[in-house]
Amino acid sequence: MAKLAHAKAEEIDLKRTAELDFEIDKGYLKKKKEDEIRVRLDEFAKELARVSKQRK
Length: 56
What we know:
This protein is an all-alpha fold. Helices cover about 95% and strands about 0% of the residues. The radius of gyration is 24 Å and the shape is rod-shaped. The model has no long low-confidence stretch (mean pLDDT about 80).
């Protein structure tokens, strides 16, 4: 009975660890995507400024 309880506790710990890893990965991917969008917006703003100067 003790072995079964121990195995069950390990199984629960593994599930929690996997869920935590998923949350960390999810947070990392979200930040990475936000950074990519920020870079693209900066590039767009620079291009827009350049074009605006050319038109004047």
